Each structure stands twice: as C-alpha cells, then as structure tokens.
Amino acid sequence: MENFNIISVLRNKPDAEACICGSDKYPRIKGKVMFHRVCGGVLVHAEIDCLPRKCGSCTNPFFGFHIHSGTECKGDKSDPFAKADGHYNPDNCQHPCHAGDMPPLFNAEGKAVLVFLTDKFNVAEISGKTVIIHSM
Q1: Is the pLDDT of residue 59 over 80?
Q2: Considering only CA atoms, which of 84, 69, 103, 78 is closest in space to residue 21?
Q3: What's the DSSP call for residue 14?
C-alpha cells in the first residue's frame, strides 16, 4: 500500500460529503461526514455536534454510525427514517460486517470526531446514500 499523509488528505476537499441533521426528537444534532479517496480505500472523517448526553459516569457514550442503502432521511410518524432503508450491505454479509457498518461515535460533551480508513466501499458506491447515527 502506498503511504499517504492523513493531515494532507484531510486538508483537501472531500470527494463526497454527507450533512448530518437531527430528527424531530433531536433537532440540534448537526455535523458533516467527509469521504476522501486514498490509496487503499476511503478515509472517512466525521465531525458531529450536539449529540444527546445522559448524566452519570456509567451512561453509554456510544452511538452507532452507518451508511444506509436509501437516498433520503425521511419517513413517517411511525418511522421517521423509513426511506433511509437498511444498512448498506451489497454482499449480504452478517452484521457487523455490512459494508455500511462504521466504527461507533464516542460522545464527549455532546461532540464526536472520528477518522478511519476503510476498504469496505468506494466513494462512487456510497455517493447519494444516507448516513445515520443510531442511539446505542
């Protein structure tokens, strides 16, 4: 694998980007997920703000983080994200090996930052798909 400088990659304009917006229940959540083509895969960079926090030292600070197959984060009252469909899973793998399964977000005072490298998808495959943050 050819080496790349992560800092240089992150300074460049991403090849694809997802804007994160909260739901009716959590309207303050906002952020961006940026996808950069690199040798060996895709460098994913997420910055999320206003995640809900629970008080206490033993509360769960983790959020599931996935690419879903759908093209819209819309739905109805019973399922506000129904059109997001399921996790992106072109090879019909078992969870947690779906191509759209990404590492969890760690909530720190309502913020999360994540950078990771993956070869489970390429930018063209996921362009136009939805990115969803799940509680727990």
Answers
A1: no
A2: 84
A3: P
